[in-house]
Model the fold of this input.
Amino acid sequence: MMKDVLHMKRRRFLLSVVALLWVLGAGLPTGATEPPSIRVAEAPLQEGGPGAVVVVRENGLLDWTQNFIECEGMAVAPAGKSGAQAKALARRGAIMDLQRNLLEFLKGVQLDARTIMDDFMAEDRVRTEVSGVIKNVELLGGEWDGEAYTIRGRIRLASIRPIVAPLITPEKKASTPKPKKTLGKFTGLVIDVRHLPLVPAMSFRVLDQNGQAVYGMEFVDQASYLQSGLCAYYHNLNYAKGEVHVAPNPIVTKAVKLSGNNVDIVIPNSAAAKVRGSSYNFRKECKVIVVSK
Done:
């Protein structure tokens, strides 16, 4: 039974290597124990956080609040190897399996209402830049049980945003009526979408009830987007209201419905008017929080 298990593990590892090399474009040096570009995290970050929005799949998780993708990799040593050499080779294989799982997870990440990351993976630029991100995975620690090595690692969405930013075409600004007078100085926008099946994405649009754009890539400064993303995601509304990113006077509203494959958000016209009439243009700095379940 144990031999059968080990055989299945080795077969899984070999298949993962083939898939990964297609993206990374080259194998590892014969004598290397791990890719030299991999960075080891000093300590694992605390999971979740106050009201974190986390998407869990079979091969890993995406924390939209702390902005990282985390997966696990596993491999056994080649037959006939033992001791320190077996451990080193198994660890090397586990890292490659981890990279493969991170790549597979990343392919399914929603970019906007129309596309996912996999839609652009055939482009040379995207594949090359994604390769660099995957090679620089942060390792969170591993375990060797004498036969198999298991390791966890993560990549940051901050390293993905420069890759996807050119792929996300901002919508043209619609000609919408502007308030004749300032409606107040608002410091951010908090949208409650907990009652709706929102799909978190790297980019989305906020619309009013007439279908006119209120917020999206066309309203933000690119440097702010690359640093923090289009919004912060939480599922704790009370926490979101006082979050420093939008404090001290955010507009708090409840979404009316979703649009665009449950990625785009429709808010009441009254809230949209406050956004447009604010004397402080918080949209430029991406001071928006989406409260999701």
The longest strand covers residues 68-76. Residues 1-8, 13-23, 26-49 have pLDDT under 50 and may be disordered. The chain has two domains: 2-167, 188-291.
